[in-house]
């Protein structure tokens, strides 16, 4: 009887090398995902720096791009070990593989839907994505521990090919690398500016009013009209109120800062406005304070955000009034919005109505 799986790519040497690449992408994706989760849900010991100003843009870009790269690598890895999935294996090995594959597919597929801002499920994506990431990494570590002798042996063995029909091992590895590189190149332009002209599948690179993308519009937030009598409240040891004209009359600061979102896209822009630190001083507060920024938006998880002391005191943390030299479009947060260096876009609160010192 002829063997069922005759392709040379069903080989431990191929599987080990693709597994190494896959482990690197998973590791990058996991670590940068932890950072993003920590910024949005900071434990008491966690501090995220304000410099460099593009730090979050870089880490979240790596998170999404490494996730994209992991998709063809995971498929190639499964194909290389396909015969083993039907062979005899220790229950711990078989169980870790099953959990790992299910968790990996869950993370990558839901991640793709998140990038597209399409949520055809009832659970809250960030919480589920974070929880299953730990499951995936735990299963991966168990799998590596079980297969470590095989991995070490396979990586030390050259990838040679005997004359035979079909794709060679080296060509399979080359094709896998080429497909992975193409996937990265086609999407990385969403966060890497100099790749935007060649990234044909890049999302959210330039669409939106004033040339900057928008995730949540004013209509979606229920802020379709701003009261002409709008005032900004700054609550510290003293209560201060500012009209839009008064804010415009204050010393204005212009800063080139990126807006970087959890979906992985980012764009740089010129923001002009008032330093949050100056507003805090006007209310008798120490700029090195924890601050809550409230929006006119009445509902939604991100209608307010907490600004930690190092961001509140930073000279580039602004309540922006203008974007790229123009008055803010309402979809960008008119009459004013928060813009701070190295922060996720969901925490750059729009339609700001109140700045309150907490500590």
TrEMBL record:
Alphabetized CDD domains for the sequence: SO_family_Moco
Q: Report the InterPro entries cross-referenced here.
A: Mopterin_OxRdtase_euk, OxRdtase_Mopterin-bd_dom, OxRdtase_Mopterin-bd_sf
Residues forming the Oxidoreductase molybdopterin-binding domain are 226-358
Residue stretches spanning the membrane: 14-35, 55-76, 97-116, 128-151, 172-195
* NADP found in the keyword field: no
Q: Does the keyword 4Fe-4S apply?
A: no
**What does the UniProt keyword field contain?**
Membrane, Transmembrane, Transmembrane helix
UniProt-listed Pfam families: Oxidored_molyb
Q: Under what name is this protein listed?
A: Molybdopterin-dependent oxidoreductase
């Amino acid at each position: 009887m002829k063997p069922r799986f005759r392709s040379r790519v069903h080989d431990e040497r191929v599987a080990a090398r693709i597994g190494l690449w896959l482990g690197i992408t998973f590791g990058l994706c996991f670590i940068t995902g932890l950072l993003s989760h920590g910024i949005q849900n900071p434990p008491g010991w966690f501090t995220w720096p304000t410099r460099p100003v593009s730090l979050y843009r870089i880490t979240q870009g790596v998170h999404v791009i490494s996730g994209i790269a992991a998709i063809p690598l995971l498929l190639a890895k499964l194909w290389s070990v396909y015969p083993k999935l039907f062979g005899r294996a220790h229950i711990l090995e078989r169980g870790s593989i099953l959990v790992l594959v299910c968790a990996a597919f869950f993370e990558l597929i839901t991640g793709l839907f998140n990038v597209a801002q399409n949520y055809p499920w009832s659970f809250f994506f960030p919480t589920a994505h974070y929880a299953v990431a730990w499951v995936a990494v735990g299963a991966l570590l168990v799998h590596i521990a079980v297969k470590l002798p095989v991995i070490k042996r396979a990586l030390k063995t050259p990838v040679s090919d005997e004359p035979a029909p079909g794709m060679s091992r080296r060509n399979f590895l080359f094709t896998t690398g080429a497909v992975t590189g193409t996937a990265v190149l086609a999407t990385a332009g969403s966060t890497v500016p100099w790749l935007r002209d060649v990234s044909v599948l890049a999302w959210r690179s330039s669409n939106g009013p004033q040339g900057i993308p928008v995730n949540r519009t004013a209509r979606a937030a229920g802020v379709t009209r701003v009261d002409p009598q709008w005032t900004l409240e700054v609550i510290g040891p003293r209560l201060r109120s500012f009209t839009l004209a008064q804010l415009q009359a204050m010393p204005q600061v212009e800063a080139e800062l990126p807006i970087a979102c959890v979906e992985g896209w980012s764009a740089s822009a010129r923001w002009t406005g008032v330093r949050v630190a100056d507003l805090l001083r006007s209310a008798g507060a120490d700029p090195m304070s924890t601050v809550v920024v409230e929006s006119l938006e009445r509902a939604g998880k991100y209608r307010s955000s907490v600004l930690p002391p190092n961001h509140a005191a930073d000279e580039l943390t602004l309540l922006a009034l203008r974007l790229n030299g123009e008055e803010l479009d309402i979809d960008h947060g008119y009459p004013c919005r928060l813009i701070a260096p190295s922060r996720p876009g969901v925490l750059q609160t729009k339609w700001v109505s109140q700045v309150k010192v907490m500590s």
